[in-house]
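Supplementary Data S3. Sequence and structure tokens for construct A.
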Amino acid sequence: MSEAPSKTPVCYRHPDTETLLSCSRCEKPICPKCMNDATVGYQCPDCVKDGRRSQRRALNAFGGSLAAGRGGYAVRTIIGINVLVMVASVILGGPKAIAGAGGFFGLLGAGTPVTDAGEVIGWASYPDGSVHGIAAGEWYRLITAMFLHYGVVHLLLNMTLLLQIGTYLESRFGPARFLAIYFLAGFGGNVACYLLQPANQPSAGASTATFGLIIAIIIVNRRLMLDTSSLVPLLVTNLLFTFGIPQVSKEGHLGGLAVGAAATTVLAYSRLPHRTAKQVVGCVLLLVALIAIAIWRTNDILP
């Protein structure tokens, strides 16, 4: 006589395996290979996947990614770009690009073909008869200047400040919002150089952006009701440095400070609902205003 067919359920993923276990969520039969511990009972692989998809991403207080912000990827990338540009500047400019060319107690480096090509300069005639500058159509200088440095000391000062303050701010805002503050401050500081400095005076450095970070950390801590008493001396020290050391771009530092404060205020004080949309609109309006100022300056310089 043939045996009666078994009525024991089989695993829905392994039809040849009988089981008395079932998923506590969908109640499908699962074998020991397929079961995953859950708060109550066990779950099948499909329900585990569905649960992961339905979980909301952890956000920080300002709407950015909490996990990505703690990684510090944006700060590391910016530092890497600045170092690579410095290496290129030394290769093309020689030893004088490192230090010993004067300025800041003789520790700053000389200009190089790299700095000449990317620094902020409004309008200047070069010895070969060519004309260069933002007003001559080289608008990229308003961005590239924040990645250029006159020597290794100049680079180290800015990158040390970026690593200390930027890592904290990125953890608070997330990479995207941190980058918005950094680039708006840097761009704003360069626009201030273009607007207020003599048209043929060059300037470069990440300090336009890092000055924006200094005021950003004060604003953000006040917004989070954290102590800011230890941060005010940092701001004062950098302002004394700005006004006390020759060949430092006061216009760039103060411009980065002002625009960094504006960008941080937009990102830190935008509230739900539609917080991200408000932040985007605020930052875009700030960028448009800076571009408008640069266009006005161009029309003022051109004959």
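Construct B, processed identically:
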Amino acid sequence: MAPNDSAETNGTAARPGRRKAARYIVPVAVAGVAAATIGLVPALASSGDPDLPKITAQELIEKIAASDTEQFSGTVKISTDLGIPSMGGMADSFLSGAAKGGDGKDASSADPQAKLTELASGTHTLRVAADGPDKQRLSVLDDTSEYSLIHNGDQVWAYDSASNAVYHAEGKGKAPHGKEQAAPEGVPTTPKALAEEALKAADGTTSVTVDGTARVAGRDAYRLVLKPEQKGSTVESVTVAVDAENGVPLKFTLRPSSGGKAVVDAGFTSVDFGKPAASSFTFTPPKGAKVTEADDAKAKGHEKEARKAAEKAQGDLGTFEGEGAPKIIGKGWNSIAEFRTPGGAPLPSEASKDVPAEAQQFLDALGDKVTGKFGSGTVFKTRLINALMTDDGRVYVGAVTKDALIAAANAG
């Protein structure tokens, strides 16, 4: 087992290799938000700790940054436990609404922007494959159905076997920033994508160590552990199992400061770094399938309406900062985003009849009424991301505790 070599971040000048690695390193408040968009699995059982050469944390980070592996295929188990109470009928209402266009008409049930929101909870099994930046495939496996998203050059296909629905888009070109993933940008679906988000900024607020070795998906790996050095974070640690041979992250685990099982855990259960079969990236719509073209959705004005709504919301937010961007309080793991709701509107209440009863029940289950120098408001909590909405329409959100949010609001 490799010894616990550490490379605690302290803001000193970086070596050239460190600068190269820095492009992979973030405040985990941001990583937590990204991770919260998918669902991830209990820690994979270790089959033994391999005896590997000694390596420092800095060397391991550089090994991740230097990894040029672009071909792989395998199975990923993912799960999340944010501690959010059941939404009951509201969940079905929300998900069905997400699958509709801006005018309320049904869009394709295979549309990835709507379908992949289902990864926000529960445990899921994914099959993934990549052959460079132009070819990726991601399949979500259920007991009786399968959803697949295929990117091949300028063609993107998505197929939902449960509804026999197909979604097709052209002219997309390469995946954003050359990332080997077929999912929409901002939806990490592999340990590598999660690790890259969690390793973007060790900025003097993080302890980074190598905590031994592990076996993941039959491969030898080092365990890179990140821990916040600040008080007030909801994150206890982030552990990334890194392939000892090629530097590819094989497993990602985020544990909360409140204890208990991992909030986010994603890992390969099998992986092959050979070239996937070309057939993995080809798709022909099955007979009788309903095909929705992305251009048709545009013609219906869905994207135009969404763009207008986004521009209006940004304009409203601009009244707070002048530029539409939220104000960032603090740094590193304790970063808190502060912004104002559109028009400074307070949280809808049951008395105002602005929110359905089921939605109000869900909000009440999540929220704690709080007061302070800022006035009064409600803290909405999960095991990772918490948010304070004041009664005068200000919002403070981050991977921090309730007390940290109240302190930020009082200071503001």
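The chain is about 25% helix and 30% strand. The chain has two domains: 16-290, 303-411.
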